[in-house]
Amino acid sequence: MSSQLQELKGIQFLLGSFAGGVNVRDAINSLAPDELRRGENLVLDERGSGAKRLGCTSQGVFDPVNMLPNPGFEVNTTGWGVNSGTLTRVTSGQRTGAGAGQGVAAGGTGNYYYSDGTISGATAGRRFTASFWIKGTGAAIGKTATAFMSEAGGAQGEDTTGTHADQSIVLTGSYQKLTCSRTITQNDRTIVRVYVQQQVGAVNGDTITFDDAEIVDTGTRILSAYTFYRVGTTPQVLIHTSTGKLFYTNDPAANPITWVQITTGLSTTVPMGFETFNAKCYMGDGVSNYASWDGTTYTTFASAPKGRLLRVWKDTMWVSGIPGFPDRTYSSNPGDAETFGVSAWIDMGKGDGDSSVALATDGFFLIFSKREKIYVVYDPVTFANRIADPEKGSESHFSWVHFDAQLYFISRRGVCQWRGDAPAIPISLKVDPIFQPSILNLNALSNVYGYAYENRIGWALPEVGQVLPTFQLEYYPRLIPKAGQFGPFMFQRMPASVFVKVRSASSERLYAAHNNSNEFLWLFSTSGTDAGVTFQSLMETGMIDLGARDRTKYIRRIRILGRGKFQLQVLRNFETGSYRTFNVDLTAGSADVWGGGDTWGGTWGPASIILEKLVNTDLYGRYFAFRFLDAEVGVGSQPLSVGSKDYVLTAGEWAAYGALVDGEVLGVRS
């Protein structure tokens, strides 16, 4: 029986009586609408490959308020309690300040030292993080200390179980940081408590010293963020938080970032809109006074409209999202974003029961979007306007994203591409099933935030039962296979909800707010984890019948081209579980490189980053799908040639560039 080879990129098939293949990227792009779980935590490139994305690095927290009354034992031990053992204040060996706490064990496992933070209001679901610095002395070195948290107060007694993350360390003679966290389960709690425990093995007299303790409410969130570019100096990043505060930093690349408070008393729920005009950043949240920031001075304008949606168009500041005026948009004086005429406004779709959710511009029009329809203003002087899309609106002001001369946004109908003089066109046909109430929280789509990065654009979306976004949907406009078609989509599971891109000097980074804490993240950093948490990447093709649905196929072996370490799972006959799993190691150390003691065979080094491996499979089936996945925490390298010069770039742990399947098409089996 003869075999044939179809020369295609990606997954190829070398099969008797059949020649065919499918590109990995095209396979993801061409899936049936009900087959969605086919790409997650990956990035795609023009070669048709899928590669694990890089992770996220925490750049520290914003607005941290230490809830402990005596974190550093500066005067005494007031505010700390003991369960077995003894606790005293010492004035030598402290980490900072004038004192530290010293615990001496009484033996056994019940040596606890604890302190309380006071909380109020509705507490269920709020998350707190505690930390302190600890070291051992003498016989305690080499033994274990643990940090954990509890909740107390209210109708029920203290609870040391529930949703919490403990941490243990082996004590040394130097200070180490211990961190733990807890999500409160009861809604009437008044106390959150942190414990330091000398663990199993502690004997009478074992001594620990701890200092600089804290409990922080990590429930604070970033509502919106903005990069304020300034001529001749570094850009500032501004963040508006759920505590109603506005902060800035001059150096978002610092770790940890230093945040400086600009003002407080802002909205705690409505995200602030920002725009730069005449070397100032203007802002509004629909509740507080419209304001400006020049990098050092915050100024409010009580007579200006209090809108949360801002957009500069035709040398004018436009403001909408004003409480009580759902159809209205105001215009400032030309060239002056601080003066608004009393009659410089227009109502669009007046009384239609809908309200403004976004202002955008494509350069030609001011785009005024409601949830169900979109209007445009085409004359800034007369306010002449018309309806541009009578049956599609947008869901979020922050979902409008420019990329390669095109404008995209999120509507109730999916991802849409703006077309100016014609209604917007939905482009997310392949992933339409996610835009339904059983998948997304439609009532929280106002929290959707978009971004553009490298060769793709993305949006953070909230799943059902969630208010804040829980995953990202990315689109690749540059990877459109043919004219008139749409590019592929990819899912990400980054813990990110609000995005801001910063270009400064020779760097360009994408930052985001953590969706479950008050951390500020550097996305796609040189990290293999998401702020210390392992994440899995997954790529899966659809079921492939090789054009012979009723005939059995035999797969003898698969030749993999790629880099890094991952698993290859083969699925068959529409089964959801893996039929066979194979470990694929394409790291440099797995190559046969010729050393000084070799006399023949092997390869003269150094080893290539991209390698090939033959996997013997011995599989039968009618339909086959191929799944690539991992649980690695490292990063990898990706080669890139620019003319005669070769570069090696930091990339995700692994990539699959192709899979050549060798086998036979057999007959029909009863």
Polypeptide structure, described:
- Among the domains are: 10-48 and 538-665; 80-217, Jelly Rolls (Sandwich).
- Residues 1-37 have low confidence and may be disordered.
- The chain is globular and about 80 Å long.
- Strand 27 (316-322) and strand 28 (325-333) form a beta hairpin.
- The strands form 12 sheets. Strands 1, 2, 3, 4, 5, 45, 46, 47, 50, 51 and 54 form an 11-stranded mixed β-sheet that branches.
- With 670 residues, it is mainly β.
- It contains 1 helix and 54 strands.
User: Spans of 5+ residues with little confidence (pLDDT < 50)?
Assistant: 1-37
Q: Which outline best applies?
A: globular
Query: Roughly how many Å is the radius of gyration?
Result: 29 Å
| Mean model confidence by pLDDT | 87
Q: Quick one: how many beta strands?
A: 54
Approximate helicity band:
under 10%
Helical segment tally? 1
Q: Label the structural class.
A: mainly beta
Strand content: over 45%
Largest sheet: 11 strands, mixed
Through-space gap between termini: 22 Å
Summarize the structure in short:
The chain has 670 residues and is mainly beta.
Topology:
Blueprint: E1 10-16, E2 18-22, H1 24-29, E3 39-40, E4 42-44, E5 50-52, E6 57-61, E7 80-83, E8 86-90, E9 100-106, E10 111-118, E11 127-137, E12 144-152, E13 163-165, E14 167-170, E15 176-183, E16 191-198, E17 204-217, E18 222-228, E19 236-241, E20 246-249, E21 260-263, E22 273-277, E23 280-284, E24 290-293, E25 298-301, E26 309-313, E27 316-322, E28 325-333, E29 336-347, E30 356-361, E31 366-370, E32 374-377, E33 385-389, E34 401-403, E35 406-411, E36 414-417, E37 425-426, E38 449-453, E39 456-461, E40 471-475, E41 489-492, E42 496-504, E43 507-514, E44 519-523, E45 538-540, E46 553-572, E47 580-586, E48 593-594, E49 603-604, E50 611-621, E51 624-629, E52 635-642, E53 645-652, E54 655-665
